[in-house]
Design brief:
It is built from three helices and two strands. By secondary structure, it is mainly α. It has one domain. Strand 1 and strand 2 form a beta hairpin.
Length: about 110
């Protein structure tokens, strides 16, 4: 398996996610690594937008004095969607596998 070293430009949180996914799911191909990198870049972008939105509030006042939605809200939304799409593209099964079909034992 290749190194679990994460891209240097990712946030500490994304680097931790990188190492966890690479290790847990054994992603060792170039395509998988690229998809994960782009997904985590989107995650970082969403987090950066969220930080600014938290500081500024969900609405801002425009030049005309009108209240409008914060301009980073669509960036946060789209970045979150891009992150989730990247994770989905990696075909990661985030649910534990059941040993047999049907209801779990004890229910």
């Amino acid at each position: 398996m290749k190194s679990t070293r994460s891209p240097a430009h990712l946030s500490q949180e994304s680097k931790k996610i990188w190492r966890g996914i690479i290790t847990e799911f054994g992603i060792d191909d170039i395509a998988g690594s690229k998809i994960l990198r782009v997904a985590l870049e989107a995650f970082d972008r969403a987090q950066a937008a969220r930080k600014i939105i938290n500081a500024d509030g969900m609405t801002v006042i425009d030049k005309a004095g009108q209240t409008k939605a914060h301009p980073l809200l669509p960036i946060e939304r789209d970045s979150r969607a891009a992150f989730l799409a990247g994770i989905k593209a990696l075909n990661l099964d985030l649910e534990p596998l059941n040993a047999a079909p049907g209801r779990p034992q004890g229910t």
